[in-house]
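User: Predict the structure for this protein chain, please.
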Amino acid sequence: MNILKGKKFQEHATPIIDLTQTTEQTMHRKILHIALPSIFTNITVPLLGIVGTYIAAHLGAYYLAAISVGSTLFSTTYSLFNFLRMGTGGVAAQSYGANQFSESGVVLGRSLVIALSLSLGILLLQQPIIELGLWLMSVEGAQRVLVMDYFHWLIWGAPAMLSLFALNGWLLGMQNAVYPMVVAVTQNLLNIGISLFLVYGLQMKIEGVAIGALTAQWVGAILALTFAVRVARKHGIALFSQGHRVFRDLAAWKRFFTVNVFIFLRTLCLVAVMFSFTAFGNRSGNYVVAGNAILLQLFLLTSYFLDGFAYAGEAVGGRITGQGDGVEFRRLVRALFLWGGIIALLFSAFFFVMGDFIVEQLGQDAQVIVVARTYLPYVIALPLVSVTAFLFDGLYIGTTATRSMLVGVAYAAALFFLLHQVLAPTMGNHALWIAFTAYLALRGGVMALQLPGVLRRKFG
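Assistant: Here is the predicted structure, written as C-alpha cells:
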C-alpha cells in the first residue's frame, strides 16, 4: 500500500515534460529576440526619408531633386560596403557560439581596421566618385552644383558610416539587436532635429540638411562604439589591448577576406539588378516609372519585416554554427520559415485587400494609378516568392556560407537580364516585373538546393 501511494505521489510530483515543445518555444523566443528590434530599426529608415523629403521640399524643387540624387549616390556607394556588417556579424556569432569571446573581440578589431582603411580611400577618391556618380545619373547644370555641395559635406561621414556597419554587425553577432535599434532611432531623431533647426531656424540651404545627416552619422558611430565596449566588458573582452592579434593572424585575415569578397560580389549583383530595374523602367515613360516606384515601395515595406527575420537567422544561426549543433540548426530553419511564411502570407493578403486603396493614396495622377493597378498582382505575389531568398540570406551569413549566397544571386541576376532581354520587345513593363519575380524566386531556390551541402560542410 505504501509502495502504491509512493508511486502515485511520484506520478503527480514529476509531470511528464515535452522537451521537444520546450526547445521549440525557446527557439521561437530566440528568433523574436533578434527579429522584433531589427524590424523596428528597419521601419525607422522610411520615416526618416519622409521627414527628409518634407525638409528638402521646403527649400524648393531644385534642392529636393539634388538631395534625392545625392542620397541615392551615397546609399548606392555605401551599400557596396555592407559586407562589413554581414561578414562581421556571421563570424562574431560563430565565435560567440563557441564561447571564444576573446576571438570575437579580435573580429571586431579586424572589421574596424578594414572600415577605416576603406573610408580613407573614399575620402582620397571623393572627386572621381562624385564625377562618376553625376555622369551615371546624367546630372547637369544648376542641379550638378547643388549635388556636389551636398556630397562634399556628407562625404566626411564615410568613416562613421563604414564603422557603423562593422559595429552593428558585431553587436548583432553578439546576440544583441536592441543596441543597433537604439543607435538607429537616435541617429534618425538627431538627423531630423538638427536639419529642421538649421533649415527652418537658421535659414540654411542644402548644407543644413547635409550637416544634420553628418552629425547624426558621427553620433551614431560613437554611440555604437560605446555599446560595443559595454558588451565586450560583459563578456570579459579587452577590445583595445589585442592589437597584436588583430594584425598577426594571417589565416584569420584570409578567412575574413574570403567571406567578405563573396558578400561584396553578391552585393554588386543586387545593385546591378535594382539599378537596371529603374533604368529599364525609364524606357517606358514617366507614368510607368512612377507606377513602378509606388509598387517598389510596397515591396520594400515587406522587406523591412523579412529582413528582421533574416537578421535573426544570421545571429542565431551563427551562434549555433559556432556550437556545432546541426540538430539545433535544423530546428532554427523550421522555426524561421514558419515565421517568414506567416509574414509573407499576411503581406500578400494585405496587398490583395488594400492594394487598390494604397495605390490611390500614393498616386497623384490618374494615369500613374492605372499603371500601378495593372502591375499590382506582381507585388501581391512577391512576399511569397521572395521569403525564401531573404531567410536563406540570413542563414548563410550566419554560417559564413557566403559563396553559396553568391552562387544563388549570380544565377538569379543572369536570369533577370536574360528574361527581360527576351520578353521586353513584346511584353513591355510586364517583362520587367516577370524578370524581377523570377529573379527573386530563383535566388531563393538555388540557395535552398545548396542547403544540404552547407549542412554537411558546417556540421558534418
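Confidence is low (pLDDT under 50) at residues 1-20.
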